[in-house]
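Why does this matter for the project? Reviewers at the last site visit asked to see concrete outputs rather than summary tables. In response, this paragraph embeds two records directly. Each consists of the residue sequence and, immediately after it, the corresponding structure tokens. Nothing has been edited or filtered.
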Amino acid sequence: MEEEELEGPNSASEKRYFPESLDSSDGDEEGILACEDLELNPFDGLPYSSRYYKLLKEREDLPIWKEKYSFMENLLQNQIVIVSGDAKCGKSSQVPQWCAEYCLSVRYQHGGVVCTQVRPQSAVQLALRVADEMDVNIGHEVGYVIPFENCCARETILRYCTDGMLQREMMSSPFLGSYGVIILDDVHERSIATDVLLGLLKDVLMARPELKLIINSSPHLISKLISYYGNVPLIEVKKQHPVEVVYLSGAQKESFESILRLIFEIHQSGEKGDIVVFLACEQDIEKAYEIVCQEGSNLNPDLGELVVVPLYPEEKCALFKPNEETEKRCQVYQRRVVLTTSSGESLIWSNTVKFVIDVGVERRKVYNPRIRANSLVTQPISQSQAEIRKQIVGSSSPGKLFRLYSEEFASKDMRPLKPAEMQEANLTSMVLFVKRIDIAGLGHCDFINRPAPESLMQALEDLDYLAALDNDGNLSEFGIIMSEFPLDPQLSKSILASCEFDCVEEMLTIAAMVTAPNCFSNLPRGAEEAALTCWKTFLHPEGDHFTLINIYKAYQDTALNSTSEHCVEKWCHDHFLNCCALRMADVIRAELLEIVKRIELPCAEPAFGSEENALNIKKALLSGYFMQIARDVDGSGNYLMLTHKQVAQLHPRSGYSITKKMPEWVLFHKFSIAENNYIRITSEISPELFMQLAPQYYFSNLPPSESKDILHQVMDHLSPMSTMKKEQNVCEKCPETAEQRCALQ
């Protein structure tokens, strides 16, 4: 978000607190009369600024504006309203404002308005835009709540939040009594949290007849939503603008070369407008960015500058929506080329886009419950995604969409709808949440698409291994506390275990660093050697988890001793570290520490650096990640997973890869099946430590392997008394059969 954009709502609001008519009048009757003639904003009681009227004209030009009367009528007379609209029709910004007007008309007797977004970037951007349009202060009348950031106040009447944050709010307020209107936006994205909310809100609506539910979606999912919710009113918004679609079927085999050729041909044609390129994966973004930047510098400067904008999904501030001054400057001097993936479909709002290049494929993460790992699969996008990409072309003048595939490919190989995330992802966190909600009597969730039984069973089994379930399949005390943390259940369990092993401070740092985006910067060509030299100063002999603690401590020391934020950014740049990621880790850690204090968990003084502390950190990690163990089977860095027969290598940026030291047994944080099967964030463990901390019934369920035989030998050499004691504790916890342990209540 650019500075000038952020200043819009705040500067307008500051002016309204000190109107010129009041400042200059000094008791003059003319000044008082002028003030009385001003129209007052009903949301804060202050006169509207001139900017409000300027933005109002823009709002009235949006395709959805003509449906305002129809929407308000349906909102008054119905509990559920579905809004069907194409991308950029205005439904995400205008519908919430109309709902705020409705809540104002009934004096907020049932609560305010909340509007969910799938991505944090969208929630922040929309809140800023809507606060500007409503002529109120961001963080006051309009605010946003995203993971690890709350920009709201008691007087907030309209808040944007991620669907996951509203889901978490249901743990403390199951019936969402603070809201009179709930808006689920971008339902067609089919995120797990949105699908869960769609199901749970059915029960909430029955318990609260005064509550209103608005569902915003693209047209492709409407028939499914109507059959799911029954006969509910539908508001349809059409956004018609001319888009020339060009199919380049021969370009699919050499799509990368075709993309580069198209970018330069468009630029050299002299036609005005920005270019958006949809690539398959982030690696393609990096590759294209480097080539376009390099080749673009050799182009004719009379054509204007070619500015390349890589739009990564993890970057919170990487939302492509330029402010007015930048747009005017761009039309004269610059043409932007935005490189993104499927995750950028809902993040591009600029009307200056006149060309879209679509490769027609994407790399998706598909979770395999049998091996507890994601597979990175390249597959065709859906027909609904292809249509959304078409709608990104600006509406002010005709645009072009280049599809690097044939019409036959679109009709035969593309699925009609984007697959639901619930059918392709790890469901352990979702099941933990549903179990927690069951305490409030909302455990029955009527999903719009049922999750795969195998994925549900795997999630239940994992929660049982983590001691989150009791003998009846309900949440244990451990499970209830684990659900308090906005983290993966394995990471939550490690934090709880760290209380026992006196290493809470260190475990919170690890949790924050692995939750935040990657702290290592993307390296330009030729910088690898210099970066490795810098990173070696942070390496810890015990493993990557400990290296992350070193990096965070060095960042904190720099921040404490620096006179300005610029010094911190320079330090990060000099050490090839991502300053935004480290800032985010700092925020995450602070919130996790707040949760630890709120639920009164014991927290020992930090002792990082001692041998005993290192052992305790490994014990805490193993308590949560005993299912993610691998062994070097040949001494050359080929690691075989303990739970299945997949072989992986250490990631090139692992400390062990840099130092060429390959431990035999490692605990890893992340593993995905792709061209390079890398395990990421690894630390050495001993088989003895694993046998002491892994649940006995988990070990007995492992498939036969050489690694399991080695662990059997280790178990035989352990003290018979300690082994007997552990088995006794395990038997007290677990029921007789796995089926009983994993029963879904």
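We now turn to the second protein, recorded in exactly the same manner.
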Amino acid sequence: MASRRIPGDLATGLLLLFSLISTLSAARFSPPDNHLIACGASSAADLDDGRAFLPDSGLSPPVLRSHGRQISLSNPSPDAAPLHRNARVFACPSSYEFEIKNTGIHRIRLHFYPFSTPEYDLSSARFHVLASDITLLSYFGTSSPVMKEYFINLNEGKLVISFSPADRSSFAFVNAIEVMSAPKDLILDAGRLVKPDEITEFHGLSKQALETLYRVNIGGPKVTPFNDTLWRTWVSDVEFLKLSSASKVVTYSGRIKYRKYGASREVAPDNVYNTARATSGATVPGSNYSMTWEFPVSSGYKYLVRMHFCDIASLALNQLYFNVYLNGYLAYRDFDLSDSTGQMLASPYYVDFVVDVDVLEHLSISIGPSNLSNPSWIRGLLNGLEIMKINNTMGSLDGKSPVILSEEASELFFVNTCGFGFMSLSVIAFMLFVRWRSESRSLMTWSRLPVDVSNDFLWHTRGPKRGEPRGYAFIQYSAKEEALLAKSKMNGRFVSGRPLVVRLASEKHLGDLESKFSCAETKDNDARSTPGQMNRNAKIAAIRTKLKSLEEQGGCATKKPRLLTNSLPPGNKDHSLTGYQESDR
């Protein structure tokens, strides 16, 4: 039977329709956990990429644990992004709690767009952000819009993201939060650890916390979230390209051949793999490199460098060999892309490298020719590049040191920062927490430590909270080092939904706390009788007697505490170590 010929226009239309359906199908990534929160907003914020962010108040179950202040731009410009028109401001340590249905790696995004209102100039905010005990930001502030992206492996059914002002005169803010399950193949467990004298395997990569610093489309234009299945932005490499000897931009209009168990569209989209920068192999005089990109980074961290390859330039298989260098160290010799992709052209492949940046404040990635290559072949190629910071041994992604009291005392004084009543369960939790693993380079583990908390509480004696703890307590350690480590781990931590302030005990801090935390005591004791005030003073005197006895026993220093100012960021030499007062009403 004779076949019927489809008219040209109809065939073209069907092809375009098929391509559109295929693209839309590929873009339908449905994460099990997908929390999109517009902080401080009163209605949903609809984005151009099709996603809708819900306001952070009124959700069921609620995600906002401390309401803070809701602020908005009074006259936003028509082109202002929906997520940039509102913000949630916190003058006291506060947090969001998200339900996690599927454990594993999750992507966290924090949106910061500083704007000004009569009450707040968001560009003056300074604060810390933690997620699952990982320090994401320390003494953070920004005067321009920024989005921070992280990947964290979650093993529990909830995620708590905490915001804490850096000092009592500052505040925290956030415009939007995203918490999304990451695809299973996005972060694998192993990578190539590049050292000056050798290349070994790095294991446990999927268990680390990562911060995305750069996501670059090599040789191609900017890729917007609308064209990425994970709503990512890939910027052009022009800004970072430093050495480019005889390189050229290569584009490809054919079909990218994704392989089973290989790189997927969730790893990187077609728009990254169908462009590349290639070189014929000519090197810069005095080096082995044909192409080099440089990126500013912070020293003292390891970095995950993911390089995306797709051979869209070779005329035949097995005609592409080259070397890869990270910070001048050989990372991959004689890389054979045809062999890596199972003898397929136009098939994506990526390699994860881990490199330690100890001193340099930049990270360089270079491509150079291999001795196995033929001068008539393409002798180097790169399609895409991602750089992520790996958390340090103390569980931090921000290198700024916390404020530390220089004192010889080995006793800690801890309080609830917003003046709420403290249950004895919180103290028990604190005592149990001394078994927390010290994530130092020696990988030593804490053992159970002797503590003394008896008769070291201040209790409410009058008012509605009579008989309840006022939130003050002492815990004594046998060694100064143990007290300092407990302070660093527990300060700002939420216990039973309440943030803690943990400090070394001193006369000065007691005076500060009596004045700074009057938000709780003043309400209970205003217009009260003199005997109640005398009872309160007696309790304070009892604690001071306790401190004096410790001094006489050699357990507490007699000198006044002082701040180690070299541990503070520039411009922050006078941070108070006492708590905060919430102003959300």
